[in-house]
Design a protein that fits this description.
538 residues, alpha/beta, 2 domains, 5-stranded mixed β-sheet, two-stranded antiparallel ribbon, 23 helices, 9 strands, 7% strand
């Protein structure tokens, strides 16, 4: 007996709702997983997962500030630095166990995180508007150069904060829509977890709270005041928040590191950012945000390619979101939802002018999904065919940027701290069979440990002061008695902590001579790592 036509129509629509989002995920995987071993592992990327490797291989675990939890005679670290938790460490551990310790396994984890981010972006698009907005935001994010290439090196930028923020916004919205306090409890947990993942998640929390109050005004304040009068609700919220942030609290009980870092960098950071120079910082942040939107900031992949249309689309989307349309708008609440991603973007940018580190563009990994959401919310309010064609053009330009980066990356292998020359250095050290060469600069130790699976463990002796002092000389002189000891420098133009002159002085003071043993080059032929021995003398 033939099925009625409406049944096939229902099945077709249902399949479309499944296949359309799935198509976006597959496009993203194609773009993000290609040549995943490139660029070379960055120091900040590798250092987070070294404890996972050490736990898996039964090696001594290096825990930041020695802080962690002892279980079964093993130390389980809880922080990577004073303001970044060890979430990536433990998320990578199962992949290392299943696929072995490798760059592929390390980068596969943030690819999975990115798939979660895409899914949450789609869900949030439906909450803010409808299915069309959700699909448009999903496809725009799937091909966005900043999202694609930061997802490949998601550990480097702590991309785990993006899905936590999206989940927080979803829970907050559902609570505001009266769907139950369970969403408020979930939001409290996610807020704590986000702060543990990376403390700059505070920008997202403040941006969401301030946006809610600005958009709901008196109604929002009254709702919050009414809810906060319930003592059991407040206690439950506190416990949920504590469940997310407790490792950060434990770390500060053990070391006080986060508090000390914030106190020491409140006015002027370790990297020289003056937090009182708001307008100068804002200009720098707006330039960084523009580069983020265009996707033009990946110079280290081998070029700087940009989608110049994107800033124009984003600005136009804000105008389109605000202009009233009688046929499609449903009142003030609809406008509030449309403005939410724009407000959150603006408030995060303003807050980011104050930092305990530097004005790095990587901080904006937190808000990348909000950009295509903002574009989709505005454009998809208008004629659906015109909007679809316009956003299709925007996405095509993004794909073009992605492909150019992949072509450049295949040619260069990456530059500087992202160069695949680190593979050659690790191979050289394995052949030299010296388990503990001296790392004379930043950016060497962690990638070498990863690529050699802990068989080579460089000793960082350069010190993290910007200028070399007498203590540096005293640290390295005892090693001069071993003529086979290797000293690894970065080339002068790539040096972060410049130690070559002080090293030369220390060698001469001992009546010895530094001899160049090997030069490790980028694919372009440019020297990147210089390996020395110390010879001669008494």
């Amino acid at each position: 007996m033939a099925s009625p036509p409406h049944k096939f129509l229902f099945l077709s629509m249902k399949n479309c709702r499944i296949l359309a989002p799935l198509g976006a995920l597959l496009i993203f995987l194609k773009l993000a997983a290609h040549q995943l071993h490139l660029p070379g592992p960055h120091y900040d990327e590798a250092v987070e997962i070294i404890p996972a490797m050490q736990l898996l291989l039964g090696q001594p675990v290096e825990a930041f500030r020695g802080a962690g939890i002892w279980l079964g005679g093993r130390l389980f670290p809880i922080m990577v630095v004073d303001y970044i938790g060890a979430l990536n460490t433990y998320l990578t551990l199962p992949l290392f166990a299943a696929l072995d310790v490798s760059v592929f396994a390390m980068r596969l984890m943030p690819i999975f995180v990115a798939l979660v981010t895409l899914t949450l972006t789609y869900r949030l698009g439906r909450e803010l508007a409808d299915e069309r907005v959700a699909l448009a935001a999903l496809y725009l994010l799937a091909v966005n150069p900043s999202f694609v290439f930061w997802s490949r090196q998601g550990i480097f930028v702590t991309s785990i904060t993006a899905p936590i923020l999206l989940a927080l916004v979803l829970c907050w919205l559902r609570w505001h829509q009266g769907r139950g306090n369970r969403y408020l409890y979930a939001a409290a947990f996610l807020g704590g977890l986000g702060l543990y993942a990376k403390f700059l998640f505070l920008w997202g929390i403040v941006a969401l709270g301030a946006s809610h109050l600005l958009l709901t005004r008196r109604e929002g304040l009254l709702r919050l005041a009414r809810e906060m009068r319930q003592p059991w609700l407040l206690l439950t919220l506190f416990l949920c928040f504590l469940a997310g942030i407790w490792p950060l609290i434990l770390f500060n009980i053990q070391t006080g590191g986060t508090i000390a870092t914030f106190m020491g960098n409140a006015l002027s950071s370790y990297y020289g950012v003056n937090n009182l120079a708001f307008w100068a910082n804002l200009r720098a942040r707006l330039e960084g945000f523009t580069a983020l939107v265009e996707g033009s900031h990946f110079w280290y992949l081998g070029g700087a390619f940009a989608n110049r249309l994107y800033p124009l689309y984003l600005a136009a989307s804000l105008v389109l979101a605000v202009i009233p349309r009688r046929r499609t708008d449903k009142g003030t609440a609809s406008l509030s939802l449309r403005l939410l991603p724009f407000l959150m973007l603006a408030l995060v940018i303003l807050q980011s002018c104050f930092t305990i580190s530097a004005l790095w563009i990587t901080h904006y990994a937190l808000i990348v999904p909000l950009i295509p959401l903002a574009v989709a919310v505005g454009w998809m309010r208008w004629d659906k065919r015109v909007a679809a064609m316009a956003l299709l053009l925007l996405g095509a330009f993004d794909v073009n940027v992605d492909l150019h980066y992949h072509i450049a990356l295949a040619h260069t292998g990456g530059h500087s701290a992202h160069s695949d020359a680190i593979y050659d250095l690790s191979g050289y050290l394995l052949i030299a069979n010296q388990r503990q060469p001296l790392a004379m600069d930043w950016g060497i130790k962690a990638p070498v440990q990863l690529l050699t699976k802990g068989r080579i463990n460089p000793l960082e002796v350069f010190g993290y002061e910007w200028e070399a002092d007498e203590a540096f000389k005293e640290r390295i002189k005892p090693f001069f008695s071993d003529p086979a000891k290797l000293y690894i420098f970065r080339s002068p133009e790539d040096a972060v902590f410049k130690r070559w002159e002080a090293f030369q002085e220390a060698v001469e003071e001992e009546g010895k001579k530094a001899v160049l043993k090997a030069t490790i080059r980028e694919r372009s032929g440019r020297p990147l790592f210089l390996v020395y021995e110390v010879k001669g003398g008494p």
